[in-house]
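Reply to dn_fold:

You asked what the input looked like. This is it:
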Amino acid sequence: MPESKSRKKPAKPVREPRQPKAEAGNPRWLVPVMLGLMLVGLAWIVLFYLSGSAQLPIPPLGAWNLAVGFAFVIAGFALTTRWR
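and this is what came back:
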């Protein structure tokens, strides 16, 4: 009985292994800005609470000074997601 021709699969091209990317470190500005924003927010909130009825640092804002302080803190924490 005749044998069928065997099917040959085309040879797969040999891929060169990928070179691992050199991990870039943090930008130099990241950590100082991150910590600075958190400390400014903390100082803003503490100053608001310690000022009492004067409602410093910006008196016309009133209780919204808390929101400003927390915005600084949240911006600092948002930068921590970029820290490697």
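The chain has a mean pLDDT of 89.
Hope that clears it up.
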